[in-house]
Design goal:
Radius of gyration: 28 Å
Number of strands: 29
Helix content: under 10%
Oligomer: single chain
Strand order of the largest sheet: 2-3-5-7-9-11-13-15-17-19-21-23-24-25-27-29
Number of helices: 4
Length: about 425
């Protein structure tokens, strides 16, 4: 009798479970979402680290790696990120247009997958709720669509580190909700559209590492929310536009290095008291560094290398610089600046060909432990570097050639990270 009752109960439970909708126990997600995601998986030809291993048909796709859902029902985000420290952590293939079935998708994040190829995925135009596009560090190519401005619901748009070519479409200025526009490290050509001034909500503008040319347009008066401005590694010419001065309350990163900018470094940069990073390296700036730089008390990274700057270099009141590069200008510093020696956090010091004439034994920096790069080459520095180098635990590279340094190599304690040691005269 007990066996009969037990068997009957099992049958009833089985029947009731079978009749319940699949979603009741989270066994399946929406059919359109599932088929769209599985089509994406089928477009992936290589997945060495089994990133998509959990994407199994018939299971709840809301539990799949990289898939985010709203109330465990509809897919709202697709986020797959490779590990740059692992050379096998990539996906090879294309982005399936079937992802257009994910009608509730508000964010797509395909980052550091390295080998995702093909043109700009036009199916993104069919996703009405899409707000965030981050397709970074892949191999997508071709032009950015001219009608990109029709996606005016976007709040963040990043295609950095791909192989996109052609100009920046002028219609991009219609994306007035954007807070981030990141198109760096592609092969974009032409000029910066003046119409970008319409993107008044931008906090992050990154166009570095392209082949953009012409003058940097005077558009920044209307971009007063900018925190990060990255225009380095292009072909820009002319002066730093005056309108950048309007960014002084908010701007923390100004990167204009590796261009063909000229003229004097504007005095107004000394007003940027929130500035963390200033890179003006490898341009054609002339004259002196403004005395107003003494006001940059919060700057951590300053790179003025490879210009035509002359004495005197201002005494700075920086509280703790991390990285300083003044190399290959026309300075005659005579000694390593005292404000450098007092920094408790500096890790990179590059003062090559800066007219330094001092005995290195006399330099007593407050902290040497964290140094990883030191370049003092091309000066007239005498004495021994043993005392300095033996106090550096993380040193990767020391360049001291073209000086008057003398010491016994047997006295050196080489750290585990040291890769380059140069003393050739």
């Amino acid at each position: 009798m007990n066996l009969f009752l037990t068997t009957t109960l099992l049958i009833l439970v089985t029947i009731s479970t079978t009749l319940l909708p699949h979603n009741a126990y989270g066994a399946k997600c929406d059919p359109d979402d599932e088929s769209g995601l599985l089509a994406f998986k089928s477009g992936i030809k290589s997945d060495p680290t089994s990133m998509l291993k959990s994407w199994i048909p018939g299971t709840n796709c809301c539990t799949w790696v990289g898939v985010g859902c709203l109330d465990n029902k509809r897919v709202t985000s697709l986020s797959l990120t490779g590990d740059t420290e692992n050379p096998k952590s990539f996906l090879s293939g294309t982005i399936s247009p079937s992802l257009s079935k994910l009608k509730f998708l508000d964010g797509i994040y395909l980052i550091n997958l390295l080998k995702i190829s093909g043109p700009f995925p036009d199916f993104l135009f069919k996703l009405p709720n899409l707000k965030y596009i981050y397709i970074e560090n892949n191999t997508l190519s071709g032009p950015i669509p001219q009608n990109i401005g029709s996606m005016n619901q976007l709040e963040a748009f990043s295609l950095q580190e791909n192989k996109f070519t052609g100009p920046i479409p002028s219609s991009i200025s219609a994306l007035t909700k954007l807070t981030q526009l990141k198109l760096g490290n592609n092969f974009l050509t032409g000029t910066i559209p003046v119409s970008l001034k319409n993107l008044t909500n931008l906090t992050y503008l990154s166009l570095q590492g392209n082949q953009l040319s012409g003058n940097i347009p005077d558009i920044f008066t209307s971009l007063k929310n900018l925190i990060i401005l990255q225009l380095s590694h292009n072909k820009f010419s002319g002066n730093i536009p005056l309108s950048i001065s309007s960014l002084y309350p908010t701007l923390r990163y100004l990167e204009l290095g590796h261009n063909s900018l000229s003229g004097k470094i504007p005095d107004f940069l000394g007003k940027f008291k929130a500035l963390d990073t200033l890179d003006l390296s490898k341009n054609q700036f002339k004259g002196t560094v403004p005395k107003s730089f003494a006001n940059l008390t919060k700057i951590f990274n300053l790179d003025l290398s490879d210009n035509f700057l002359v004495d005197p270099f201002p005494v700075m009141n920086v509280k703790g610089i991390e990285s300083l590069d003044l190399s290959r200008n026309m300075f005659h510093l005579k000694e390593i600046p005292k404000w450098v020696a007092t920094s408790p956090i500096i890790y990179s010091l590059k003062l090559a060909h800066c007219g330094i004439k001092m005995k290195l034994d006399d330099w007593k920096p407050l902290e040497t432990f964290f140094y990883d790069y030191i370049d003092l080459s091309g000066n007239e520095i005498s004495g021994s570097a043993v005392g300095l180098l033996n106090k550096t635990e993380y040193l990767i590279e020391f360049r001291g050639s073209e000086n008057l340094l003398k010491f016994d190599l047997e006295s050196l304690k080489f750290g585990n990270r040291l890769k380059y040691l140069g003393f050739v005269t």
